[in-house]
Amino acid sequence: MVDRCDVLAVGAHPDDVDLGCGATVARLANRGLRVGILDLTAGELGTRGDTAGRRREAESAREALQAAWRSCLGLPDGGVRPDADDQVAAVVGALRTGVPRAVLLPHSGDPHPDHGAAAALLLRAVFLSGLARWRSDLGPASRPRLLLAYPGPRQLFEPTIVVDTTDAYEGKRAALAAHVSQFVSAAGPPTHLASGHFLAAIEGRDRACGNLIGTEFGEGFAAVGPISADEVAWLLGGSR
Question: What pTM does this model have?
Fold first, then answer.
């Protein structure tokens, strides 16, 4: 169930937010912002795990990150489509219900087809959500003020903003550990995600991002369009 939030972190699959910006979610929650996590699909096409089990793992990960809530829209895994009106309406409904001031979303250059499609879907929905005459039945028009894109697990880019996540990084580790079906080798057939190298690479990237700003850990984001310095200050520690 979608509820009101200050920040909405969106991923195509149940572990995408945790991998891409989980420590930032934990940092924001720790400072008192209300953060919601929205998974577009249940990840039903994954090699490991089932829908019910992944839902339980995602909830445990939410608790580790101290997010206020986590919900799944139930869009088709492998079939996220920015040109599908029903999918756009579902995301607009979530935006108008949650009324987030900031949205963390997948980067459009992510090579995973669902991740790139999710980025395009979010950008279209963000625009339409602000139009009062578009699907007024979904609630009053609203539009986030700040959009930041996080990288996919196999994506490298030069970030516009790096968030120091050193103090919140244990929350990310705990969240990823909660996704047992995906990342624990003994939980299913051999996959790259469960090799141990995969999570080591994620942590290595976060250390490299932190190194850019002189901290132990960091998570990098790309600004989507021009961004307000005041909004960034609010997000990362300015006045509420």
Answer: 0.96
Q: Which parts of the chain sit beneath pLDDT 70?
A: 238-240
Q: Which domain holds residue 76?
A: 7-236
The order of strands in the sheet holding 69-75 is: 69-75, 35-41, 7-11, 102-106, 146-150, 218-223, 161-164
Query: In this predicted structure, what is the pLDDT of residue 240?
Result: 44
Is the residue at 2 inside a domain?
no
Using alpha carbons, list the distances in angstroms from residue 182 to 98, 192, 197: 29, 10, 13
Angstrom distances, CA of residue 91 to CA of 21, 38, 133, 224:
20, 9, 16, 18
Asked if residue 163 lies in contact with residue 215, where contact means CB atoms within 8 angstroms, the answer is no
Count of domains forming the chain: 1
CATH code (residue 138): 3.40.50.10320
pLDDT of residue 37: 98
What distance in Å separates the CA atoms of residue 178 and residue 238, rounded to the nearest whole number?
31
The residue to which tokens 């572990």 are assigned: 15
d(C-alpha 145, C-alpha 126), whole Å: 10
* Residue 68 per-residue DSSP state: S
